Amino acid sequence: MKIKLFSFIAICLITTKIAFSQWIQTEGPIGLTGISGILNNDDKLFIGTNCGLHSSDSISGRWDYLCDISLKAYAKKGDSLLVGTTAGIMVIDLSSRDIKPISYGRSLINLNINAISSADTCLYIGTAWFGFKKSKGFSDNWESFNDGLPYFIASGGFHAFNVYLIEHLSDVIFCVTPDGLFKTNVDHILWSPASSGILKEYMGQNPNNNIKFLKAIGETIFVGIENKLYSSSNKGNSWEEVYSFGSTVSSLHKFGNDYYVTTLGDGIYISNDKGVSWTNFNYGLSDLNVNTLNKIDTLLICGTSDGLYYKSGNNWIKNNQGIICSYIRSMAISSKEIVANDNDKVYSSMNGNSWNEITPNVTKRYFGSVATMGDTLLLSVQSDPPFIIYSRDDGHSWENLNHPVPFNRDDSYSIYTSNKRLYAYEDDIMYSTDDFGMDWWKQLSLSRPYCNNFNGFLVYNSIPFALTCGNAEVVRLNSSGNWVLSNNGLPTNLQLEYLTKTNDALYVNVHGKGLYVSKDAGNSWSFTSNKLDLNDVLDVSWGISSSAYKGRILFISTFNGVFYTVDYGQNWKSLNVGLINKYVTSIKIFNDTLFAGTNGNGVWKYDIKSILLLSNTGSNINQNHIRIYPNPATDFLNVQIDSGSKFELNIIDLMGRQILSKHNLLSGNVDLSNLQNGTYILILKSDKDVLTHKLVINR
Question: At which of 525, 553, 572 does a domain end?
């Protein structure tokens, strides 16, 4: 039988297109989770949170994050959900398996939509600058109707209108502005005040905080103002106080013959007599700051400032599974754990999946960033004045530095560690210490002629490098302890915005231009392409938020996802499969796993073993002198390398999992008898080279 030989050159073109893994959301950090809306479509439940839209097939099941659209203002039409955002209206097809919000109407793009109300034949919207608008037949043909509404003079001198709540009866429309409640006939759009009978002290006194909702039930309109519920049965000509609650009312609902009011402090009230008397409805509800309520079939569900509850028997049961809304500011890696912080809390994870809170008990405005030095954790705290603390026991206890940093500014310190040295800097001043603040040195501060702000800092091959706020000012510390320019090859008329490194190169981001690389410790720089695969373009002029590296592989995070390069930036690959929230604020590598902290959805992880295996370069294995057969294989594979070099063999499946690994091999047979039928990636690795091969096992 004639045996076919396979060329690695052809095979590599095939295997580089295979996706080996995808992002998976870790179980935290949880963060505060405010629920703003609850709705259903067919058999699926949807909730709007402060970090985006989630769905679940069961009220007691896990919630899946869908997109970063929060239900600030929304209306449902059939299977379509129309959501008001700061950039216009987004439409979500709730019946689709792949939730992708799309813009609704070119004329509404960049309008700040405060309110949406759906009538039979049109939509009403309230905007922050252009007031009240009405569509014609749900088309993108909008008319403004602001006659009679109060205006304010916007920047630029034009009249602007702010409408932030809308509700309608069959022939009357109501809206709320910063100057109170107004109404109009649907056919003759001329607004007039509609506050008769409502306490005057609430009108014009920043009702954005006072008027919480408008709600039409039948032909009766209700308004919630502070802790009072008012109603009007004569189309807003006069109002009556229905009830005065113990705290601010947030929403009103009617299910069957029962009325429900949610409050921000006293939970839920129920009335069986059309609002004459009310009783608490809170047994088992641990969070009494309730934003909204809904009844789906026979099940009551409420959303609070800290999550979702559903009524089971006489108890409220909390279910926040999968609702992860922390906004990660920074992350750091020690030898045994990952540490992350948001504004208010600090978290750690030993296994890269679940998180424990290790927040220190300190007076603060917010936490700046975390860093590690060996297994010691360091935390920069924004306070008055700012300070730095550390922990040697995995965050169980925290200590002050021996002496505080000898200067302070308005912001928290930027901190960096290298070779058991802590650097603390802000604006143009930097101090360092080798003994946790017993002694501080100021020799790293900027001085003339350089611009007086640090825009970045790192230590490369024991040499400190910094970016300043001046054009083309990347500087390094010389042997005399002075900063000297290190910008040969950089554009002299542009600012530098980000500085990072791999094990054998430095990278700097030039504003409006792209990335430059230095392979000689900053002596010279050359431009490196900023083009990405999949027709993406990395806008490095503004987008880089963080970076991490493994060997010569550089990973960067942006406001539009994660990317990596294995050839000094000449080619970029996107790493965003499964990453629903692409606003990534920080990335770190821990045990061959890449972790990404997001702006609103906690920490995600990606197994990069396959990238590390496939991404080395070199020339030890000659592609023209290697033979692999048979393919498809059965129980063995014959590998013949003419050079006689020893090599490492790895077999991974198409999910990136390592199935087989052999070391110090010479040419010969490889036993495949324990592998199942299927398609795999065969990787041969020498000291300097990695070659890949598609392998099929078929018995």
Answer: 525
Q: What's the confidence (pLDDT) of residue 617?
A: 42
Residues 289 and 248: their CA atoms lie apart, in Å, by: 9
Residue at 457: amino acid letter: F
What whole-number distance in Å separates Cα of residue 490 and Cα of residue 256? 71
Task: Please count the other Cβ atoms lying within 10 Å of the Cβ belonging to residue 88.
Answer: 20
Same domain, 168 and 107: yes
Show the tokens assigned to 177.
């502005």
DSSP annotation of 412: P
Contact 252, 263 (CB under 8 A): no
Going by C-alpha positions, the residue among 70, 71, 76 that lies closest to residue 40 is 76
Same domain, 16 and 106: no
- The pairing of beta strand 584-590 with beta strand 593-598: antiparallel
Q: 487 lies in which domain range?
A: 446-525
Please give the DSSP secondary-structure letter assigned to residue 413: P
Domain containing residue 152: CATH number? 2.130.10.10
Q: What is the mean pLDDT of the chain?
A: 88
In-domain check, residue 441: no
Q: What is the mean pLDDT of residues 25-53?
A: 93
Rounded CA separation 104/123 (Å) = 12
Range among 597-606, 641-650, 667-676 rated most confident: 597-606
Using the structure block, give the residue that is written with the tokens 């009494």.
Answer: 288
Residue 135, SS3? strand
**86 and 16 inside one domain:** no
Give the burial class of 485: count Cβ atoms within 10 A of its Cβ; 0-12 exposed, 13-18 middle, 19 or more buried.
middle
Do both 164 and 97 map to the same domain? Answer: yes
Tokens 């860093």 belong to residue: 371
- pTM given for the model: 0.81
Peptide bond into 386 cis (omega under 30): no
Q: Tell me how many domains the chain contains.
A: 3
pLDDT in tens, 78-101: 899 999 998 899 999 998 888 888
Residue 655: the pLDDT is 66
> Token pair of 239, please?
């109002």
Tell whether 266 is covered by a domain.
no
Is 76 in the same domain as 172?
Answer: yes
At 647, is the secondary structure helix, strand, or coil? strand
